[in-house]
Design goal:
four-stranded antiparallel β-sheet, about 50% helix, Jelly Rolls, alpha+beta, rod-shaped, five-stranded mixed β-sheet, Heat Shock Protein 90, 15 strands, about 475 residues
């Protein structure tokens, strides 16, 4: 490196308003560095130790996107600068790395200033300007953080309300089934007491117990009938019961039909018990079947509650490390589970999941927020009716998640601005315009991936690309 003259500094637009003492300081602390064509003056992600000013030549600025170096700008204007451009900040953490790379397109000469010393000089030369800029910088960061946090809290509140609604249904079903089960058990005890009061011999009682096991086994293997088939079966059984002196057979027929019983079953019962005990025996078997079905309802409802709680834990990543190797499918499934209330009955969910999808290093709780924002937007776009498609695939270097909807689509103007902070097409009070901005930053900045959108009427797709290799985030 060589020195630089005050006269050359004075000819640069960046320093044209500085006085002689300030130019002398720059000449004393700055050094001229030469970079041949094709070489890198600074590299993205490296510690930001220097502030660079172009003296001669042409440079290209670039950033890494999905492992590829994408050129942002190219210029040969003397005086353009790069590197530690926020060296004046007191917050060293905010400017710890170079945000982009600088490559010499032709042979280049740069003025190189030590970032720490240059930052101190700027704060001494322009204290009021630095205070204003610091206030603006930190104010914008604080505002952005607060609004982003508010967006997350609003989304969490909505999901919590929906989850409580989903939990309430199986909980209420469990309470109803338990109450009905208690009533049926009471009736069973009364019928059993009547059957065992001495008027029935041991052989008859044994036959009833065997019949009980038979009808329970038939219940477990009962074929599902169409509404028309079930109605016809109920009519047949009700007629049979009436013909055999069983009172209110129309009340028993639906239970026996649901248990998979037919006329042959009733004939078998009739052949194994005395005609005087037929009504009591059938009612006792009916109570047995109802009891089994109610216990099945309680089991199903309990399983649904456990499934929802499991999905909520998976969604929130409770008791798990923030960064881990994950199966993307788990996050997608848990997000769909906790958002079931948002999708409603009018939206059909189609899942086309790649069985060979590799595990990836990620922040799963943050990715779940991405899936939530995209699916929520899709549900609102379809206005409660349409098809939501969740498709996954992979390449050698990335996992792809494609979330599509059949909503009305978006214009090219909206599509171009969809990831801008505070941009929203929702009515006032219904959106902050930060959901997709947050999603973009999570995918791109936190995971080194990419997120893109294509849209036409009836066919909108958000495609998230996540690298399978470890990514070190500097954000």
């Amino acid at each position: 490196m060589t020195g630089i003259s005050v006269a050359e500094l004075r000819g640069l637009f960046l320093f044209e308003s500085l006085d002689d003492d300030q130019l002398a300081w720059l000449a004393e602390h700055g050094r001229v560095a030469e970079f041949p064509a094709g070489s890198h003056a600074i590299a993205e992600g490296q510690p930001a130790t220097s502030f660079l000013v172009l003296l001669d030549g042409e440079l290209a600025m670039s950033r890494q996107v999905r492992g590829d170096e994408v050129e942002i700008s190219r210029t040969g204007q003397r005086g353009v600068y790069a590197g530690a451009t926020q060296a004046w900040l007191h917050d060293a953490q905010a400017v710890s790395v170079y945000p982009s790379s600088i490559r010499a397109v032709t042979d280049c000469r740069f003025l190189v200033l030590p970032a720490a010393e240059f930052g101190l000089a700027l704060r001494g030369w322009f204290p009021m300007a630095v205070h204003l800029l610091e206030g603006l910088y930190h104010g914008m960061r604080t505002t952005d953080a607060l609004i982003s946090q508010r967006e997350r809290l609003v989304a969490l509140g909505s999901l919590s309300a929906g989850l409580m609604h989903e939990l309430n249904n199986p909980a209420a079903a469990t309470a109803r089934a338990t109450s009905a089960l208690r009533e049926r058990m009471t009736h069973m005890r009364h019928k059993l007491a009547m059957l065992a009061d001495g008027s029935i011999d041991r052989t008859q009682l044994r036959s009833l117990v065997e019949l009980q096991e038979t009808v329970i086994a038939r219940l477990k293997n009962a074929a599902e009938l169409t509404p028309m088939q079930a109605a016809d079966r109920e009519d047949e059984l009700a007629d049979w019961l009436a013909d055999h002196g069983v009172r209110d057979g129309w009340d028993l027929a639906p239970v026996l039909t649901a248990a998979g019983m037919d006329l042959a079953c009733l004939d078998e019962i009739d052949g194994k018990v005395d005609r005087s005990l037929l009504e009591q025996s059938i009612r006792w078997l009916g109570y047995t079947l109802e009891t089994e079905m109610l216990m099945g309802e309680i089991e199903d409802a309990s399983a649904r509650i456990s499934s929802l709680v499991g999905a909520a834990k998976q969604y929130s990543q409770m008791d798990r490390a923030a960064h881990q190797w994950i199966d993307v499918h788990e996050g997608l499934k848990s997000t769909l589970a906790v958002m079931r209330h948002k999708l409603g009955d009018g939206i059909t969910v189609v899942k086309e999941l790649d069985a060979g999808l590799p595990r990836i290093p990620a922040y799963p709780a943050e990715l779940n927020q991405v899936w939530t924002n995209i699916i929520d937007n899709a549900a609102q776009a379809m206005d409660g009716r349409g098809t939501l498609t969740v498709r996954t695939s992979h390449t050698d270097t990335a996992v792809l998640v494609d979330i599509g909807d059949t909503g009305p689509g978006m214009t090219d103007e909206v599509r171009r601005r969809i990831f801008e902070p505070f941009f929203t097409t929702k009515p006032v009070g219904q959106g902050t315009g930060l959901g997709l901005d947050i999603s973009y930053r999570i995918v791109v900045n936190r995971h080194g991936g990419d997120i893109a959108v294509t849209s036409r009427p009836g066919d909108t797709h958000f495609v998230v690309r996540l690298p399978v290799a470890e990514y070190t985030s500097e954000v």
